[in-house]
Design goal:
By secondary structure, the chain is an alpha/beta fold. The chain is built from four helices and seven strands, in the order E-H-E-H-E-E-E-H-E-E-H. Keywords: Phosphoprotein.
């Protein structure tokens, strides 16, 4: 349950959700919207995420699934990092599956609570 203080914690923040599992993406989007975020996507494919980033679409933060139907999301992570956009990995993979260059990126292991993830995102956005 979202507290009154948490509501609006992501107000005016545009959060890109890159997730290929429809129900997980939908749950994440709903949790983020409860906190006032405007969800960009969700997008299930790496190419679409890269196109959104390169188009100049305003993105304040992102949640990235690592495996998008057999394609790794790391090129999206590279593009976000190049634009100074903070992101988290939401994945079933363990830390050893993540390249060392992303060791400092927060990683949320599936299954996780979309509400807990969305509540943690404001701190990531503020600290970017």
């Amino acid at each position: 349950m979202t507290t009154h203080a948490e509501e609006g914690a992501l107000a005016r923040c545009r959060v890109l959700v890159v997730e290929d599992e429809y129900f997980i993406a939908d749950d994440m989007a709903k949790a983020l919207e409860k906190l006032g975020a405007e969800v960009v996507g969700p997008v299930p494919k790496r190419e679409k995420a890269l196109a959104l980033i390169s188009s100049g679409e305003k993105i304040d933060a992102a949640v990235l699934d690592i495996n998008l139907r057999g394609e790794e999301v790391f090129p999206v992570a590279d593009a976000l990092a190049a634009h100074g956009i903070p992101f988290v990995f939401a994945t079933g993979y363990d830390a050893s599956s993540i390249p060392p260059s992303y060791a400092a990126v927060p990683r949320w292991e599936k299954p996780f609570s979309p509400d807990a993830l969305s509540r943690a995102l404001p701190a990531i956005v503020r600290n970017a």
